[in-house]
Amino acid sequence: MIWVAVVGDWTNLIFKWILSGQRPYWWVHETHLFQNSSKPHLDQFHITCETGPGSPSGHAMGSSCVWYVIVTSALNFARSSCISSVQSFQRFHLLRSILWTAFWVIQINVCISRVFIATHFPHQVLLGLVIGMLVAEAFDHIPCIYNASLKLYLQVNVFLLSFAVCFYLLLKLLDFDPLWSVTKAKTWCANPDWIHLDTTPFAGLWRNLGALFGLGLAVNSEIFIQSCKGKNGCKTIFKLMCMTANLTFLQLYDLIEMPNHSEALFYILSFCKSASVLFGIVAVIPYCVHLLIREDERKLRL
Ligand SMILES: O=P(O)(O)OC[C@H]1O[C@@H](O)[C@H](O)[C@@H](O)[C@@H]1O
């Protein structure tokens, strides 16, 4: 899921630079389509002022690729344990209908909300939705990610970074400013406080690189192997405790505000924050839970 989310978001950035889509909240002020008196008024909200280009929608894409992975994985898991009788086959069909209905309800809500807050035109969210599903489907055919070594994680990170930077420089060389949309956002956002540095194209890139790096470090670490790949790894109690601890940890982590007076510092900290979040939830917390369970078992034996 993390692979799909990271590569999906990176693909979104590249598509955004290629397609250079406008966003309604600034387009409406600049278009010559309307006479001054017939210009529609678009309400802006604190999450309206996205600073990247509009097409395809990053939120629609992120949501569709991640939920696609969740639904298809759950169905694969259920299919393998439900093929024995007619009754379980019917149950599987029911589960499939429920999960896909939930998938579409979520996607439709995400798409409508992005259009409602004037950050996207409808075709941009639809494009995001479709590309997100395609990225997720593509990863279904790349099984090597499950056993990827740290070296592969680093190589993919270097590739993603260098491709994005080279593409950025190429656009600059062609006299096209890849950050044109940031200027538009700053000009037309109704409230300067609603312009967030974490929505800029490079902030997303560094966040994603950090996440993949953190995941690579975690799944190749000794503590991950001892905890998640060990005998505790398949216990339900271990999984439940990890989930609870991780969700609490993520809520607390979200409270950490990053200084945004310097862009470079913000990007470096974004990288470090995502890397440490992934390392924390994939390796450190499961290891602590594993120690806790082991200690409990030891006490019970005594
Ligand atoms: O294109 P949307 O739906 O407005 O989404 C923008 C978001 O797109 C994501 O891809 C970026 O990582 C975020 O930084 C950005 O805020």
Automatic annotation (TrEMBL):
The chain crosses the membrane at residues 98-117, 123-140, 152-171, 205-225, 237-253, 265-293. It is found in: Endoplasmic reticulum membrane. The keyword ATP-binding does not apply. SMART domains: acidPPc. InterPro entries: PAP2/HPO, PAP2/HPO_sf. Its EC number is 3.1.3.9. Pathway: Carbohydrate biosynthesis; gluconeogenesis. Keywords: Endoplasmic reticulum, Gluconeogenesis, Hydrolase, Membrane, Transmembrane, Transmembrane helix. It is a multi-pass membrane protein. Residues 1-140 form the Phosphatidic acid phosphatase type 2/haloperoxidase domain. Its main location: endoplasmic reticulum. Belongs to the glucose-6-phosphatase family. This is glucose-6-phosphatase. It comes from Ataeniobius toweri. The lineage of its organism: Eukaryota, Metazoa, Chordata, Craniata, Vertebrata. The gene is G6PC2.
